[in-house]
Write a sequence for this structure.
């Protein structure tokens, strides 16, 4: 499966998108991130055919689909709003996209998807009274049951509460991978990138500034911090305003899991997190810079994660006077700690010196679970 | 305007009994509607009422009105609902003008509508000469032509508003799910606009039943109930028209009851909300 967008442009009064060039293949998930009004949804609308490009073409497996009607494109689309048909039951919604004869044939697939999303018990319910999370799961299942070649997702989880959003996001990535669907996920939340992306495109003012795999982006983002916030500042001042470096992302292999606490390894370093995870599986976690405290000495503390790490760089936190971002690095691990200038002066933290970075097992927030891949190390 | 506002602001509202004023005004409005209904008793002898009601010409006109109004409503539905869909969904140069044109029969005095129709359908018109075997005037066909013309705006406007209120995302999603336009129209657009369209049917039928002006011009004969009332009153005075009037009142009550039952079944909203909001049964707008 290959999707190619070649020199696509679209002009609206006061806004021009493109020229956009993108090439996606197989079952990768591309997260298209950018500020509101940068043209993210327009790109999805062009791919699905809701709007026509002024110039350029869109190819699916080498076939030009630019003028193909929406209903013949075999592309799934999940809106920010679940848009379930209010006059149908949950089951009728899910099978709506199937042809009459297919409903029986696809029973196993319907069962598998509804179980994966945890909505099997809702099938006979009416749409009225369902929660936002349930509706979004049904909406995604309804699309996936038609076996689309590509799944376009326009911030489908934006309106959900954080707990539901996180669970569904992990679930969604696993299901997309299981179904082998190429996905494009549009968002303006940085954490969605870490949770879902194989590749990332950063979009601003109608232009794609950079597209690469998440791994490459993070490893080349800078010597001092592996987060998109740092990368973005080199792309455009307007993006650095958008990514304010709210997260550290770490990814490793689960080595222990007991009594609601698991440990994962990243190189020779071991980190503890809350929750039971399958041994040898992969977890990706986000840690807020504010949750990482620094110490000059190895102190006895209840915090379960302590790592000796070098201060790479000290800089001002974006638009936060009096707050400093301390960029830390050891081996392949890059962290950012956010502390006050007073703390930094009090401790006498200097660049190129070593400190202890400390955070509790409750600080990391798991956003990605999956099969461990040796390349990930 | 500014002085109006300051005048309103200077009124001491505490001195005015709000409830009393509202009740008085409401009572007068209600009296205005109810009093003529009860005034019938002053024009009719109870002993002769039953005989008058069962007069063959009264029954015949009543039945003819029911049948012609039903046929007219179906015809308007068949052509008017697709037109309403077009006006709601396809915006093109001149679509605004078409929206104005479809309202004309509603605004035009019915007699004027009848005169225009007579110009088109009289036996000496192009249409009349082309189809000499068809009696377009002074016939049941003539009644239907008059009714469809004057009642069509109700169907078209109600349906158009109903389609407007169906969130286009539902149709887009249905198409993304692989459904072609016909399927989307029948499975999504129509069911979601159902309530507004049914209200359109009801109002169209009510208008067709009560039609007089255009029918007078185009098909005085055979008599519909409206023409019967008009003629009875002209020949024998109000007391002769009373049986047809009573049947009309009876029909109105039945219609209102039927209408409220349909509305209740559809969504449980009140009759007033449904009649004037043309709400659809869809959820997210």
């Amino acid at each position: 499966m290959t999707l190619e967008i070649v020199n696509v442009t679209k002009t609206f009064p006061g806004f021009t998108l493109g020229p956009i060039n993108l090439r996606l293949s197989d079952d990768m998930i591309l997260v298209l991130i950018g500020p509101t009004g940068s043209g993210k949804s327009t790109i999805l609308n062009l791919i699905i055919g809701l709007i026509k490009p002024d110039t350029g073409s869109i190819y699916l497996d080498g076939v030009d689909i630019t003028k193909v009607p929406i209903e013949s494109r075999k592309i799934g689309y999940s809106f920010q709003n679940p848009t379930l048909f209010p006059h149908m039951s949950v089951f009728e919604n899910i099978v709506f996209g199937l042809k009459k004869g297919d409903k029986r044939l696809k029973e196993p697939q319907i069962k598998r998807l509804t179980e994966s999303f945890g909505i099997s018990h809702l099938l006979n319910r009416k749409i009225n009274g369902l929660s936002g999370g349930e509706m979004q799961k049904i909406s995604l299942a309804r699309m996936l049951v038609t076996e689309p070649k590509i799944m376009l997702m326009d911030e489908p989880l934006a309106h959900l509460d954080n707990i539901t959003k996180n669970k569904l996001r992990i679930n969604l990535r696993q299901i997309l991978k299981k179904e082998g669907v190429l996905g494009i996920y549009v968002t303006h939340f940085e954490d969605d990138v870490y949770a879902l992306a194989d590749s990332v495109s950063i979009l601003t003012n109608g232009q794609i500034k950079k597209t690469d795999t998440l791994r490459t982006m993070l490893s080349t983002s800078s010597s001092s911090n592996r987060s998109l916030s740092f990368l973005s500042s080199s792309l455009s001042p307007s993006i650095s305003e958008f990514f304010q470096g709210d997260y550290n992302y770490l990814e490793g292999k689960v080595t222990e899991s007991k009594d609601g606490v698991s440990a994962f390894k990243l190189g020779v370093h071991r980190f503890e997190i809350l929750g039971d995870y399958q041994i040898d599986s992969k977890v990706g976690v986000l840690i807020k810079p504010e949750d990482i405290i620094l110490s000059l000495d190895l102190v006895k503390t209840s915090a379960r994660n302590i790592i000796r790490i070098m201060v790479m760089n000290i800089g001002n936190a974006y638009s936060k006077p009096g707050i400093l971002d301390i960029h830390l690095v050891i081996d392949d691990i890059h962290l950012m700690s956010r502390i006050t200038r007073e703390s930094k002066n009090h401790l006498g933290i200097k660049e190129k010196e070593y400190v202890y970075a400390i955070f509790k097992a409750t600080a990391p927030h798991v956003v990605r679970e999956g099969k461990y891949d040796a390349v990930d190390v | 305007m500014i002085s109006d506002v300051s005048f309103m602001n200077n009124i001491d509202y505490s001195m005015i009994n709000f409830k009393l004023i509202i009740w008085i005004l409401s009572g007068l409005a209600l009296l205005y509607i109810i009093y003529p209904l009860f005034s019938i008793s002053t024009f009719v002898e109870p002993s002769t009422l039953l005989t008058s009601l069962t007069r063959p010409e009264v029954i015949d006109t009543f039945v003819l009105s029911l049948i012609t109004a039903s046929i007219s409503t179906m015809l308007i539905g068949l052509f008017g609902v697709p037109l309403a869909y077009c006006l709601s969904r396809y915006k093109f140069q001149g679509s605004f003008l078409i929206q104005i044109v479809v309202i004309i029969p509603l605004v035009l005095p019915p007699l004027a509508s009848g005169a225009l129709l007579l110009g088109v359908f009289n036996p000496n018109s192009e249409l009349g000469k082309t189809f000499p075997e068809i009696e377009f005037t002074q016939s049941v066909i003539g009644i239907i032509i008059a009714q469809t013309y004057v009642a069509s705006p109700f169907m078209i406007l109600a349906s158009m508003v109903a389609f407007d209120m169906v969130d286009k995302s539902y149709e887009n999603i249905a198409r993304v799910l692989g459904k072609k336009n016909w399927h989307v129209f029948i499975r999504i657009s129509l069911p979601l606009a159902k309530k507004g369209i049914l209200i359109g049917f009801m109002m169209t039928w009510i208008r067709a039943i009560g039609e007089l002006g255009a029918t007078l011009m185009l098909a005085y004969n055979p008599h519909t109930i409206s023409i019967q009332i008009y003629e009875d009153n002209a020949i024998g005075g109000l007391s002769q028209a009373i049986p047809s009037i009573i049947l009309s009142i009876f029909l109105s009550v039945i219609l209102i009851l039927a209408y409220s039952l349909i509305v209740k079944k559809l969504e449980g909203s009140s009759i007033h909300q449904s009649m004037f909001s043309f709400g659809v049964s869809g959820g997210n707008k």
